[in-house]
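R.M. (postdoc): so does anyone remember the format we settled on? I'll just put the structure tokens first.
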């Protein structure tokens, strides 16, 4: 796996880095040449058997990168062809220089006429990071043809049709086998539709000096397994009282499994003690399933008071429901004054009775986030960063916006988790995450929300490697959660 940078940038920030590089004495065409060289080197390393190459070049600087790659491939006696899309008569600047160099080298070139030439490999150099509206016309037709071709596509900087900042698909987008990003890693490649369309991700800074990044605050920071080193080893004289007491509240009629998953996840993530407050009918089965859980049947909110007295953190929501019992428990928990993790129906109840707090962690999936914000799920997914910031502004605390490329608004900024897999899109996974979050919060771990997301995602990836993504269930993560919290 290639090493990717930790800092993630917006398109505007990347353009500023370009400008800084030019002002520092790196010519624009020199940067373009480096980009084309890096892309050609990756192409030869990744697809050494590919001899027929078609480069789809758009009329901007991304197309210029493609012209450079095509010229280099032609110089190595590969069967390469440039397929121009859009108006190339008005090329200016570095892109025009790259096109002229390709013409002087006699690289074969033709205009899009409704069909793709046959190739072993296609290079997407249609749009760069400046795209902010739906793709249409010949561009949409060319992208659709690429996606139908059945051949691998190498995308330069970003798959055409993806919004660089949000990861939203702008009408029609390239489904790349690999993407090589330049100078600044674009945040949209790692969240929203980005992870599904970029393929294997690579990065090259094109030799831009590190000091040119100074003063530009990244849009987000990529979480990495090395972050878990902060958990360290426990002192040899540790006892359970030092590792936090988590109280899980939920499990309405027919939903005992939700609190069971959250409770066991909290144990596996290192909580010293875990109590569960649930419907009385569930206590026997929960205790028999996991005897380490201290299960309490609660008929009303008053029964929670002695449990609050012993708890360090409350996880509210797994299997909670929205009936009168659930609403009474919801109100009592919010009145407890304890640090909270809210998930599932606790979030749906919060949407009806919004308030701001600094001491809680909210863990919505896109549908719950939409209800919390009073917007559609599609709007949330169209700009997950904007939704995250809106949730933070409206509700305070720390926010975990789940999904592909989970985003975390933590105390030290926005973090993005690139781990996890589609097998985790199944019932109970959120309950497990809430339990892990509660456990790390109870252990007073800095950035508990971000670390919990990372531990959870890595456990999902380990479980998928163990038996595959399809058919993965939430409890499959338990053996692997221990690995994550014991770096």
């Amino acid at each position: 796996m290639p090493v990717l940078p930790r800092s993630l940038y917006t398109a505007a920030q990347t353009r500023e880095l370009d400008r800084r590089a030019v002002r520092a004495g790196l010519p624009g065409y020199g940067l373009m040449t480096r980009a084309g060289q890096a892309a050609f080197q990756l192409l030869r390393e990744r697809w050494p058997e590919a001899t027929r190459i078609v480069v789809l070049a758009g009329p901007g600087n991304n197309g210029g990168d493609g012209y450079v790659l095509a010229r280099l491939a032609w110089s190595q006696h590969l069967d390469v062809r440039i397929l121009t899309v859009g108006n190339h008569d008005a090329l200016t600047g570095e892109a025009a220089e790259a096109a002229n160099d390709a013409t002087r080298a006699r690289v074969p070139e033709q205009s899009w006429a409704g069909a793709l030439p046959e190739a072993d490999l296609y290079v997407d150099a249609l749009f760069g990071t400046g795209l902010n509206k739906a793709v249409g016309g010949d561009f949409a037709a060319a992208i659709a043809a690429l996606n139908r071709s059945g051949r691998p596509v190498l995308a330069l900087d970003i798959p055409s049709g993806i919004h660089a900042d949000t990861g939203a698909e702008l009408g029609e987008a390239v489904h790349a086998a690999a993407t090589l990003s330049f100078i600044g890693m674009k945040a949209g490649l790692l969240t929203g539709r980005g992870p599904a369309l970029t393929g294997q991700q690579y990065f090259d800074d094109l030799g831009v000096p590190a000091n040119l990044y100074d003063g530009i605050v990244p849009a987000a920071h990529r979480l990495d397994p090395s972050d878990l080193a902060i958990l360290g080893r426990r002192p040899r004289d540790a006892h359970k009282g030092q590792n936090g007491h988590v109280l899980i509240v939920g499990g309405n009629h027919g939903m005992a499994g939700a609190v069971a998953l959250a409770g066991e996840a909290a144990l596996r993530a290192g909580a010293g003690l875990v109590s569960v407050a649930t419907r009385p009918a569930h206590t026997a089965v929960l205790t028999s399933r996991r005897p380490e859980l201290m299960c309490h049947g609660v008929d009303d909110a008053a029964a929670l008071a002695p449990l609050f007295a012993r708890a360090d953190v409350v996880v509210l929501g797994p299997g909670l429901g929205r009936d009168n019992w659930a609403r009474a428990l919801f109100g009592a928990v919010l009145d407890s004054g304890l640090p909270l993790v809210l998930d599932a129906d606790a979030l749906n109840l919060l949407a009806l009775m919004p308030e701001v707090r600094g001491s809680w962690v909210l863990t919505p999936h896109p549908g719950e986030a939409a209800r919390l914000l009073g917007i559609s799920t599609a709007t949330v997914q169209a700009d997950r960063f904007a939704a995250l910031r809106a949730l933070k502004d409206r509700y305070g605390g720390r926010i975990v916006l789940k999904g592909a490329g989970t985003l975390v608004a933590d105390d030290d900024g926005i973090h993005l988790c690139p781990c996890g897999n589609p097998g985790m899109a199944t019932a109970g996974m959120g309950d497990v995450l809430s339990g892990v979050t509660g456990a790390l919060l109870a252990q007073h771990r800095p950035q508990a929300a971000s670390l919990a997301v990372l531990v959870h995602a890595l456990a999902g990836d380990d479980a998928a490697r163990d038996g595959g993504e399809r058919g993965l269930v939430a409890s499959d993560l338990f053996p692997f959660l221990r690995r994550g919290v014991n770096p």
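R.M.: ...and that's the designed sequence above, right after the tokens. Also worth knowing: Residues 7-221 form a domain with the Rossmann fold fold (CATH 3.40.50.10260). The longest strand covers residues 52-57.
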